Amino acid sequence: MDELLSRQNLQWRDRARAVAREVVLPRAWKYDRLQEYPWDIKEALASAGLMKVWIPEEYGGAGGGVLDLCVVVEELSRCCGGTGVLFAVNALGSFPILLAGTEEQKRKYLPGIARGETLIAFGLSEKGAGSDAGGLSCRAEPDGKYYVLNGSKKWNTNGPAAHLNTVFAVTDPTSKSRRVSGFLLERDMPGYRVGYVEDKMGIRCVPVGELELENCRVHESQLLGGKPGLGFKHAMMTLDRARPGVAAQAVGLAQGALDFAMVYAQQRQQFGQPISSFQMVQQMLADMATKVAAARALVYAAAKAVDAGSESLTKYSAMCKLFATDVAMEVTTAAVQIFGGYGYMRDYPVEKYMRDAKITQIYEGTNQIQRLVVARNLIKEAGHLGHLERFIPVPEDLR
Ligand SMILES: Cc1cc2nc3c(=O)[nH]c(=O)nc-3n(C[C@H](O)[C@H](O)[C@H](O)COP(=O)(O)OP(=O)(O)OC[C@H]3O[C@@H](n4cnc5c(N)ncnc54)[C@H](O)[C@@H]3O)c2cc1C
Known about the structure:
By secondary structure, this protein is of the alpha+beta class. The protein folds into 3 domains: about 1-120, Acyl-CoA dehydrogenase/oxidase, N-terminal domain (Butyryl-Coa Dehydrogenase, subunit A, domain 1, Orthogonal Bundle), CATH 1.10.540.10; about 120-230, Butyryl-CoA Dehydrogenase, subunit A, domain 2, CATH 2.40.110.10; about 235-380, Butyryl-CoA Dehydrogenase, subunit A, domain 3. It is built from 11 helices and 9 strands. The strands form 3 sheets. Strands 2-3-7-6 form a 4-stranded antiparallel beta sheet, with no helix packed on it. The chain has a 3-stranded mixed beta sheet with strand order 1-4-5. Strand 2 and strand 3 form a beta hairpin. The longest helix is centred in the middle third of the chain and has 37 residues, at about 230-265. The mean pLDDT is about 100. It binds flavin-adenine dinucleotide. Flavin-adenine dinucleotide (FAD) binds near residues 124, 157, 363 and 364.
């Protein structure tokens, strides 16, 4: 599908592909087993300049867009889904700074992120507030020129490794629309502590943990954008731009599982012939490849819509996330089926793809929530269909 990509997109894709094949693939199962942060892989990503893809040039980045980010995430995830998110989470954490940060905040943090020296996380979800992201209880109380944060965050991807965390907390509990604000918290700030680190089904090389904030006192210069009350809006704008990255992770995982299934189907002999010669196996492979192609095309289209600032970017971003991640689950499960009993074993590569794929249907908003977002936007946009009203029922003179 190279024809869907610009020369710049292809350059990023090829650079990421080289790192993925040479550095990520040979280490993927070791880090999955150990559930350890792969510092050597992160160094390779930084050395190849991949950590600066989405950061504007004036802050030390490469000035790429969401589609550039997506092609990199896809290639990394094709070799290891954990590495895909280990990379993409830095975009998730830094998009709020890009979209809403003050000039001072951008100058302070973005160059370090672009160099791959500052790792960043995104702290929105809490134990009691997942899908209902507006129901946060973590508090940030103003105290002169400071804010004092108390509470905890759940499922903070990269948090246990990160130097910086974009954290959302309630600054005005009495307000409905301006309740929440974003804060840029550094890990050595007093009262900031990484809590329980999760033992996960998949994406095991990237740590996901709790964040405990106990009288974490931060200067008002750490308030995202310098104005309180805009945090929920900034978080939602961030998710609109980050969801194509999750979708690209899903496409990469599906493609990687399909690649392995293709090789295995030609290698594995039963009834005296390779299993790829059986029509039912061929049908599975054909369906897998078709779904991957459809998902990839939608992800690229949605990423382009985001880069172009389309009015419908929220809808397309949700659509590509839900479609591609459902495809990833179907295709990785089918790959396990093609491997037969061996597919179920940890000694073989594809069960990891299936485990890594599952989370893509859950984080950055479950696929149930994506469907709500798509439906809400469809209904909002339905005004342009007014010309059809007179055809319900079809007027008698037209029948
Ligand atoms: C490994 C991992 C990493 C994560 N990383 C991050 C991160 O870096 N930062 C961050 O902020 N969050 C992160 N999350 C949180 C993630 O976004 C939430 O888990 C997700 O939004 C779902 O919230 P929940 O787990 O509380 O599920 P719940 O909201 O309790 O949902 C449970 C079920 O109910 C369904 N449901 C809920 N509400 C509705 C509704 N209105 N209509 C229909 N169905 C509904 C859901 O779809 C789901 O199937 C991560 C989660 C995991 C597991």
